[in-house]
Write a structure and sequence with these properties.
The structure is a single chain. This protein has about 100 residues and is an alpha+beta fold. The protein is about 20% helix and about 40% strand. It is built from one helix and six strands; from the N terminus they run H-E-E-E-E-E-E. The strands form two sheets. A three-stranded antiparallel beta sheet has the order 1-2-5, with no helix packed on it. A three-stranded antiparallel beta sheet has the order 4-3-6, with no helix packed on it. A hairpin with a 2-residue loop joins strand 1 (about 40-45) and strand 2 (about 50-55). The longest helix has 21 residues, at about 5-25. It is globular and about 35 Å long. The chain starts with a helix and ends with a strand.
Length: about 100
């Protein structure tokens, strides 16, 4: 076998091994403080002195989430079963930042 063919074979084997390692690596787990997944729907409405946030769990599993308010009090941590809704009404200074896992 020529040197060029040997190099090609070695490259193919290395690439295949690397791809197998990537595709079999375990998925990263969501951690407390991470942004809630997209299947937790958010409806946010704000006024000059208050914020209304409605969360709906459209996921297939229960999610523990809370509303993160910048410059204000966050919501409590709620455990939302699939299909469940929860509303957080915040009055005071601050703005909606994101919905996070807790």
């Amino acid at each position: 076998m020529s040197l060029i063919k040997k190099t090609g074979v070695v490259s193919t084997v290395l690439l295949t091994t690397a791809l197998a390692a990537v595709t079999t690596a375990p998925a990263a787990h969501a951690a407390v403080g991470d942004t809630a997944p997209d299947c937790v729907a958010r409806y946010v409405d704000g006024y000059p002195s208050s914020i209304y946030v409605e969360l709906t769990n459209n996921c297939t599993t229960t999610k523990k989430v809370k509303v993160d308010i910048s410059w204000g009090s966050d919501s409590p941590c709620w455990s939302l079963k699939p299909g469940a809704k929860k509303v957080w009404w915040y009055e005071g200074l601050g703005s909606y930042r994101k919905t996070v896992l807790c």
